Predict the structure.
Amino acid sequence: MADSLKKNSILIVDDDAANLMQLIHILQPEYTVFTAKNGSAALEIAAKSVPDLILLDIVMPEMSGFEVLSELKKSDKTNEIPVIFITGINDSDNESEGLSLGAVDYIRKPFYDMVVKLRVRHQIQIINLKQNLESVAEAAEAANRTKSSFLASMSHEIRTPMNAVIGMLELLTHEPLNSRQMSYVKDINQSATSLLTIINDILDMSKIESGKMELVPVDYDFLALLDNIHSMFTYVSEEKGLKFNFEADSKVPRYLFGDDIRLRQVLINICGNAVKFTEKGYVQLNVINSGDTLTFEVSDTGAGIKNEDIGRLFNAFQQTDSTKNRGIIGTGLGLAICKSFIEMKGGTITVESEYGKGSTFIITIPLIKGDGEKAKTAATPKGRKLSAPKAKVLVVDDNEFNLKVAVGLLNLSGISAKTASSGLIALEMVQQADFDIVFMDHMMPEMDGVETTTAIRALGGEFNTDSNQRLESRMPQSANCGRCRSSAIPVSEQTKFVQKQFKQPIIIALTANAVHGVKDFFLANGFNDFVSKPIDVRELVSVLERWLPEGILENITAAPDAPDSGEPGFLDMLGGIEDINVNIGLNSAAGSECLYYEAVEMCCKQLPAECTKMSSSLSGGDINGFAISVHAMKSILATIGAMDLSDAAFKLETTAKAGDSAVCEELFPSFRDDLTELHRQLSVIFPAKTATVKTPGDFEVLRKGVEAALIAVKDFDDDAGVAAIEPLLVYDFGEDINALLEEAATEFGEFECKKAGEALGKIVLPLM
């Protein structure tokens, strides 16, 4: 409020006291006025106070007004202050000189009150308008930055629960369902997948604004798409007491070539709007083969649209007749997206409506017949499990929970993946073993995924040209990212790589950031492909099939094994904790109850230490360390399904990254209390293990176990390391050795082979 009432300031410079008094009398009621009787004083006041406007006399002793203006223009602090010359000289040459030096106006002596007021007021209005425009521009730029940041974070936060729905449906497809139930599951799955695509497009506003929507044409089963739409809206309409009528021209071909995802999105949006805005009656979808075009007519007996509103119906973020449609939720973005897609397909979308009686949307697209065999082949992966037990895969991620999930998903394909918890470890591992594929997390401390990939590419090495040629033959030229064509590896350097005999792996980026352009960013930085988080099983299978050498790929048509079971009653007990969504957590563990059990148990074990770490960082003034710790906690909580607590961690992380320690100190105690309560509830399910009396150990058994564990360290095989150490933990080898074995087991369990080796190296065995 104080800023809005602040007066503009004016500096009056004149060596005549009478002139100063008169100008003060004219201007002071409306403005804050400073005065100076000579040029030197004027320059000093201008530099100190930076007035909004200067009234400057031309003829003064020692320094003229022209000289004062020249000095003002030399200083960065005062060169933008507008100057009005005041003079009794009526000379055009004199006036031209002043204007050429940068003056904005002249006021003649003797002064007339109204003339002075109007000329000054005119310049002040220009000044205020300029300042307002600058403020608006700064606010717009800040809003754009905020939007980009919001999209980047919400891309993950919204996709995670949506992916949980898809993940649970994926698990249902592996259950012994009857044909009707399986049909329902498939329809829901297709709808959920389409919804996830819609969410991605809405979140990716940069793509919408820049007009860079991409169509991906494929051969697809058009009648299956229509059947899915029919099933979906028959159910939705019945729930609302409406009828959904569907009629397709008998001449409509079964297989088409085009972007079925985008067409499905358009039909879902148009039919969804028809159901949403219809309270009684019916919705009708007609599909007509017009020779070279397909026509879709979606009619309803709903609210209708006013004639004056039809013209702006397809504008973004607008809904018509907000009074009549009050309470109906929507962004007003859907029809704008639909129009964009249809026009990209070379089609049109129009609407006919009678207000209060209903509407008909008419969509036309070119009819391009598809290849039935290709469409069948493309649809096969939905019911296929890929098997590649000989594949050599490395997963790199600093979050051990993410590692567990990725490894669990890869196990569905029979792949026993190696893991690395940092870029530095990954860099060491790829030099010691040949990997077919490296799944590389983006955001990691010390060395992120891009830096690690750059370092791997800089090692040189050779590529599997046979596999590369296979990939080139299967990929469109525009998307060719083959092993010899990585943007980070110039073709001219390939001969050097072959000489060094280092096999470059395929590197796949893993990231939760789905904002437009991120895939291009990774491809331009040496990655071969991109998988978004949370990982979808089918997308993972597709990537494995695309990049693994053909010789180690097997396709099994039988249904995958049912998810493994965890501890009896575990899920029921966990479901009793209000803060945890079991479905989301189970999905993050690839549907594996055992993996989910281990993740939650690990969370329970680590919560006290993580709280201590966050508290220490915050109280010690290490706001960056606090941001890193709370970021890790956000991921841990999301993984076990504690989404509200994860959201709270996200807010703390955002605040910490902004450097606002005071707000972090205000919010953190409540967050810490919530974590303490979560730990208390989890401790009921995972009680602390009581100490047991151990049997004295045989040191020959110890020697063999340590030797096996050290081999596992050398091979970066944490599973083998755990298998070698765990049998030793039940024996007593003395306090020091017991502690080192516990430490090694913990490091293996956290995928820290190198640290496990350091602990094992400290074990001193007695002479035999």
Summary: The CA atoms of residues 238 and 244 lie 8 Å apart.
